[in-house]
Amino acid sequence: MSRVRLIARDELRLMARNRVAVIAFVLLVLLTLVAVASSWAHQRTSADLRARHAAAAEEAFDAQPDRHPHRVVHYGHFIFRPLGPLAAFDPGVDSFTGNSMFLEGHRQNTANFGDVRQSSLLVRFGQLTPAFVLQVVAPLLLVFLGYGALARESERGTLRLLMLGGASRGQVVRGKLLALGAVAVLAGLPAMIGFALIAGQPGALALPMLTIATGYLAYLALWVVLVLAVSALVRRSRDALLALVALWAITVVLLPRIVPDMAGAAVPLQNRLQTDVAIGRDLRQMGDSHNPGDPHFAEFKQSVLDRYGVSRVEDLPVNYKGVMALEGERMTSELFDRYAGASYAAQERQNDLVRTAGILSPAIAIRDLSMAAAGTDFAGHRRFLEQAEAYRYTLVQRLNRLQAEGVAYADDVAVDPGADRRKRVDAGNWDAMPDFRFDAPDGDTLVRAAMPGLLIVAGWLGVAALLLAFATRRLGDRR
């Protein structure tokens, strides 16, 4: 057996004799299995719940009786964001952003019913998911198992005995790397059970899954190398433990918590109340489609009359109130899109700042990689919002067009007892409206979004490897 393997075997034997280390490792494995099981169950339950609510909303919308199309515009419709298979591994921002939207005319609503708003504050620290265990808990276990791997040998004088026995510095370090790397693989193995479960689901994409697996492999390898590099650089095991715990606390706990707040302070974002007030102000300046005497719509009215070559709205071949509703929805939707675009741009700048901080924290980089490849990052949420708005606008305009073409203007403005019945349209029109279908991104799109995080983690691993190489050359030279 080679010296490297002998050193690795002895290191593993020493870890196995440490009861605290064994208990910690077993707890990590159990925690990961619980995280896999709970995330899997939560994802399945949430997906089924959303599917049932979506079906119920569709049924309620289609079951409306004969009524005026504009009443249906204000009746509204609920839609739900479907969960991708990889959300079982890393739910990302879904718990914070909400998963359903109420669509109605003249208004662009936000997503609602996020898990954080319906759960304890502990969810804000981090959900118990396989991604959370690998990002936060697994590195801490590697720290406690490997902090003394090389510092202990120097501190006790056994390093010189190994070298006198014919082992080189490089062989000693490679042996320790092999031992701690084996522990890292065993620690990450239960999380791969989650991937095995996900792989059997319809819609699971192989390329994003491979990207996530590669990213976490590089992330755990990074911590293995960092632990041994610090252990080789310091004089005592105690100092190595303090330095590594501090490094873990700063890069894994502190920076991922404070960097988003700093990005939010650097790039202010209007809240919902401020946005609604600003939109209301702009709407008053643009004109009111419900007010026939509004200056803008007075001009619009004349343009419609000129287009059809008539002098009165009563002579139009279409219902002018429906035509006016079409124009009003077009104008308000353009305004909504402008404010939404400004909000998206601000949030993208915030996210860019957070991603840049991945240079200081590999935990931020692996988190971005994981969410991006799973399709549960901000881009995935924005994709849902944009598709929801496109569906809302299409639905409302179809209803407005139904009013313009299916309801007579004379009936629409009449106030006699039978007018309400005459201005209703057949209930079969509601069933003819298209259902909402979320267009999920393909694997290439998800992988491209995950590449920056993977490159940062790989860069960290390269720097850590250089640091370990430097520490290896100095190993045993301290007095």
Write the layout of secondary structure elements.
Layout: H1 3-17, H2 19-62, H3 69-75, E1 77-80, H4 94-97, E2 100-103, H5 122-125, H6 130-146, H7 151-156, H8 158-164, H9 169-199, H10 206-233, H11 237-266, H12 272-286, H13 295-308, H14 320-356, H15 362-374, H16 378-406, H17 409-413, H18 419-422, H19 428-431, H20 443-474
Antiparallel strand pairs: 1-2
Helix pairs in contact: 1-9, 2-6, 2-9, 3-16, 6-9, 6-10, 6-11, 9-10, 10-11, 10-15, 10-20, 11-14, 12-14, 14-16, 15-20
What are its keywords?
mainly alpha; 479 residues; two-stranded antiparallel sheet; 2% strand
Q: What is the helical fraction, as a range of percent?
A: over 70%
Question: What does the overall shape look like?
Answer: elongated
The strand order across the widest sheet is 1-2
Largest sheet: 2 strands, antiparallel
Number of domains: 1
Order of helices and strands: HHHEHEHHHHHHHHHHHHHHHH
SS field, number of helical segments: 20
Radius of gyration equals 31 Å
**Average pLDDT number:** 86
Kindly describe this structure.
The chain is mainly α and 479 residues long. It has one domain (3-474). 72% of the residues lie in helices and 2% in strands. The protein contains 20 helices and 2 strands. The chain has a two-stranded antiparallel sheet with strand order 1-2. α6 (130-146) packs antiparallel against α11 (237-266), α9 runs antiparallel to α10 (206-233) and α14 (320-356) packs antiparallel against α16. The protein is elongated, with a radius of gyration of 31 Å.
